Amino acid sequence: MEVIKTDIEGVYIIEPKIFGDARGYFFESFSQREFDEKIGPVQFVQDNESKSCYGVLRGLHFQKPPYAQSKLVRVVKGKVLDVAVDIRKGSPTYGKYVAAELSEENHRQFFIPKGFAHGFSVLSDEVVFQYKCDSFYAPQSEGAITWNDPQLAIDWQIPADRVMLSEKDKHHGSLAELDSPFTY
């Protein structure tokens, strides 16, 4: 796998080595040994999968300590714009974000460490999205930032009138209102 550094320390794009021929393709989607060597030791404990249609926007979510999560995300079918926002107090990149297009064609993965809010928008008719987490889901520790925070000014690559949100995601506060539980 090739590890690509982003503009924010600790956030990485991962490109697997694809082996293809007339039958199709094969790639190793995860190797704990290689991940530990190239990114650092992270022990994933839970795998999740979601299916969504065009215009669905999930985010910007995080879990507060002691249940904070690092995530390794990828797309099995379709295409998304995946976003990680730095919410670590004192970070030189606080309030900045990295966006990566993940698709079934590019097979890219995105690693988001603890201390980041995470979300994605669905750019294809349908998407199957998978992610590994290094801490179990704990609903009592949920946190979030509104997807359309003007301070962040994220271009989700879908018209605002086509965005589909969960009822919960319609009511999150802004980054300016966030008392972040993370420090750099």
Written account of the structure:
With 184 residues, this protein is mainly beta. It contains 1 helix and 15 strands, in the order E-E-E-E-H-E-E-E-E-E-E-E-E-E-E-E. The chain has one helix at residues 32-38; strands at residues 2-5, 12-15, 19-21, 24-26, 46-53, 57-63, 71-77, 79-86, 88-89, 97-103, 109-112, 116-122, 126-133, 142-144, 182-183. A 6-stranded antiparallel β-sheet has the order 1-2-11-7-13-5, with no helix packed on it. A 5-stranded antiparallel β-sheet has the order 10-8-12-6-14, with no helix packed on it. Strands 3-4 form a two-stranded antiparallel sheet. A hairpin with a 6-residue loop joins strand 1 (2-5) and strand 2. The two termini are 28 Å apart. 32% of the residues are buried.
Strand content: 35-45%
Reading the helices and strands in chain order gives EEEEHEEEEEEEEEEE
> Pairing-aware structural class of the strands and helices?
mainly beta
- What is the overall silhouette? globular
Largest sheet: 6 strands, antiparallel
Number of strands: 15
What's the mean pLDDT score? 97
| Lateral arrangement of strands in the main beta sheet | 1-2-11-7-13-5
Radius of gyration from CA coordinates: 16 Å
Low-confidence stretches: none
Q: Distance N terminus to C terminus?
A: 28 Å
Instruction: Give the number of helices.
Output: 1
**Helix amount:** under 10%
